Amino acid sequence: MYNDHQALYDYLVHEYNHHFDYWDWSYLDGRRVDVSPEPRPWDYSASIQAYARDVRSILDMRTGGGDLFATLLKQSSIPEAYATEAYLPNLTRARQLLEPFGATVFQVEGESLPLQDNTLELVINRHGSYDPREVSRVLKPGHCFVTQQVGDQTNLRIHELLGTRKQPTGHGEASTKTSWNLRHAVAELRAAGWHIVEQYEHFAITRFNDLGALVYYLKAIPWEVLDFSVERYFEHLVAAQDLFHSEGHLDVTFHTFFVVARKDDSL
Question: Which domain of life is it from (predicted)?
Answer without folding.
Answer: Bacteria
